[in-house]
Amino acid sequence: MYRILQYWSIYLLRFIPIFFVVSVGIAMYFFAGGNIHDPEQAGYVFTHNFLSDLGRFQSFTGEPNFVSMFLFNQAMFLFIFIGIGFLFIPSLFSDDKLTYYIAWIGSSFFFLGTIFFASVGLTPYDLFFDPHVFFAINAFRLLIPGIICYLIVLIRSKTHKLYTVAISLLLLMTVSYVIYQLTYNDPRESYEAMVQQASIQKIIALVNVLAMFAFSFAFSDKLSKQTK
C-alpha cells in the first residue's frame, strides 16, 4: 500500500507538472506562428498566444501544427492521472474521519477538474471550438471546491504552514481568475484584450502547476509520518 500511495500521490504529482512545462516549452519552439489577430506573426509569442494555440491542428499561418499539437495535447491529457492520483490521497488522512471525508470531497472535484483539463487536449479549438472553450473555462471552476477542501484537510492535519500558504495562494489566484473569466472581453474583439488574457492565462497555469508540485511534498510528509 505504501508503494501505491507513494507512486500515485507523490511521484505522479511531481512528474506530470514537470512533463507539462517541458512539453509546452518545446511546443512553443515548434509552433509555426500567428495569433487570432495577426496570422503573419513569426513563431509563438508569450503575450500574444494562448496555450490552446499550441494544440491547434493547424496554425494561424495555415501551416500544419502537428508537433506542437501532439506535445501540448498529450501533456494536457496526462492531467487525468493527477486526478486519479487524488483518489488515492484520502487514505493518507484516514486517522480522522471528518478529515477523511473532506479529503474525499476534495479529491472528487480534483478528479472532475482534471477530466476537463484532459478534455481540453482532446478538443483542439480550431476543430471543436465550443467544447474546447467549455472544458477550458469550467476546469478551473471545478478546482475551487477541491482546493478549499484540501486547504481544510491540510490545516486539520497540522501540515507545515508553508504548504497551507502555498495552497491558500493557489485558491486566491484561481478564484481571482474565475472572476476575471466572468468579466473579461472576448479576446477576438480587440488586440489589447488578447494580450491581457494570454498573459494572465499563463500566470494562472504556472501557479496551478507549481501548486500540484507543492501538494506532492505535503502528501509526502503525511505519508512519511504514517510509516514511522
- The stretches of 5 or more residues where confidence is low (pLDDT under 50) are none
Count helical runs. 7
The helix-and-strand class reads mainly alpha
- Helix share of residues? over 70%
**Mean pLDDT, rounded to whole units?**
86
Principal-axes geometry comes out as: elongated
Protein described:
This protein has 228 residues and is mostly helical. The chain has 7 helices and no strands. Helix 5 (129-156) packs antiparallel against helix 6. The mean pLDDT is 86.
Itemize the secondary structure elements and their pairings:
Blueprint: H1 2-30, H2 66-77, H3 79-88, H4 97-122, H5 129-156, H6 161-183, H7 191-226
Helix pairs in contact: 1-2, 1-3, 1-7, 2-4, 3-4, 4-5, 5-6, 6-7
Give short descriptive properties of this protein.
7 helices; mainly alpha; 228 residues
Could you give a short description of this structure?
It is built from 7 helices and no strands. The protein has helices at 2-30, 66-77, 79-88, 97-122, 129-156, 161-183, 191-226.
